[in-house]
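Recall that a protein's primary structure is simply its ordered list of amino acids. Everything else, from secondary elements to tertiary packing, is in principle encoded there. The following example makes that idea concrete.
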Amino acid sequence: MASSSSPSRAQLWLGLTRPRTLLSGLSSVLVALFYALSLGSIDPLKTALLLIVAISAQIGSNIANDLIDFKKGADTDERTGPLRPLSKGLLTEGEVRRALYLSLGVFLASGLTLIALSSWWLLLVGLAVGLGIFAYSGGPYPLSYHGLGDVAVLVFFGWVPVVTSFFILRGTIADPTLWQLATAIGLASVNILVVNNYRDAEEDRKAGKRTLIVRMGRDFAPRFYLTCGLLSLGLLYPIYSFWGMLLMLPYIVLFSATHRHLQFAEGAELNKTLGKTARNVFFLALLIGAMLLLKG
């Protein structure tokens, strides 16, 4: 009989999706929705489909990364991150594969519907996202194993979802403010990976996973985290207003507190930093929406 401290099946499946990271994937689309809405009304069906695509793509990416890292032996008992049911033997490889296929099925169905409602050239974007899900940890040159995970996050959590979503809703990408907002939320999302790789630096080094933190050293992580955070705020200058900048103050307080926590936390305590960083990204997306409303 399982002990009371053993996770339930529901908790295992929820843990497999890494729910804290879902805020990041959702935040990117929200930025595009807020900016598009600031310019006029938007299609509710396309809006709903964009949110489904964002969440299913993030879940698929999380499951694929866990599966690939497990096959490569990168997930070990030394890791102090969130529970990985596959590496702990709590879920079978077959079960995890079926969860991956389900999430990808939802992603494909919602994505193809969006493409049919918008433009067929977006198939190329969908293929790029699908390849990115597997190229992050798998393939002949896994990005996360060669210090390119941070660039991948900027592309696939910043530029691709924000710019593509805005195009679907507004039919254009020729907007400098759009690209600045996309870069801002992308850089904020990079900090989720920074915390993750900071926490797992020693285990990644042993597994041959040469993340940017492994390459540059753990002391680099807090400085890189601060740089990404400050740049993300600086890039919002096209939507600055007096009242909007006042709204930035609570975010700056939260970000500063999370940065201090990163500097002093170790081991499992960094899981709290990870959760707070994901929260900050979501808060930044909401802040952008509020700043756009006040600017308008």
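The chain has a mean pLDDT of 87. Residues 14-295 form one domain.
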